[in-house]
Write a structure and sequence with these properties.
28% helix; six-stranded antiparallel sheet; 4 helices; 2 domains; 202 residues; alpha+beta
């Protein structure tokens, strides 16, 4: 990891000073492709792929069908030690008597009352597939980049059988085996190229 970080720093340092905004193709375009590739690598070194949970604690009825997949995911996370799970009886008063109508699963994490981001793996950018120039705004060039990526070092719990029905999990499993596509827009700002918004993975 340290070697790759040093390599990215050297690539960015060498290319940043030699690749300007005035690019039309040829050798300069090749260098620009390498620069964007290095910038994407550096971005995902700083921002691994994560799963963001809503604010904790989370309460879900055990018998509610529309929350079954969400319940399965939280249950796996509790089994992996990321969350704690408690079961609470849900009751109502009927004819002055308390009637049990179901169970509520409460998921929490000690000391966490805000959104929790769990690591899923590292995004490895394979190559820049296309660079589409955008109309210039105030003479500041911009490109829409389409790139290929794959998920490395994926967490083991992604393959828990209980998650077989979750479409997002299925896509992540596929991304660990096959290249996927992503997009990002790069704008020229004064002396360097920047991503104004985070890359979008598909």
């Amino acid at each position: 990891m340290l070697v790759k970080t040093i390599w990215l720093y050297l690539v960015l340092s060498c290319l940043a000073g030699s690749v300007s905004a005035d690019l039309v193709g040829g050798h300069d375009r090749q260098r620009l492709t390498l620069l964007f590739l290095a910038k994407l690598d550096a971005y995902y070194q700083d921002y691994p792929l994560t799963l963001s949970l809503p604010s904790l604690p989370i309460s879900l009825p055990s018998e509610q069908l529309d929350s079954a997949q969400w319940l399965a995911l939280l249950t796996v996370l509790s089994e992996e030690g990321w969350l704690t799970r408690k079961q609470k009886a849900q009751k109502r008063i009927d004819n002055q008597e308390r009637v049990l109508i179901g169970q509520v699963q409460i998921f929490s994490r000690p000391g966490a009352s805000v959104r929790l981001a769990l690591p899923l793996g590292m995004v490895r950018v394979i190559e820049i597939d296309t660079m589409q120039p955008l109309p210039q705004n105030n003479s500041q060039p911009a490109y829409v980049l389409r790139f290929a990526w794959q998920l490395d070092e994926a967490v083991d719990w992604l393959w828990a059988p209980a998650l077989d029905g979750l479409s997002d999990i299925i896509r992540l499993r596929l991304a660990s085996r096959q290249r996927q596509s992503g997009t990002v827009t790069a704008h020229w700002h004064d002396t360097d190229w920047r991503f104004d918004t985070p890359p979008q993975l598909r």
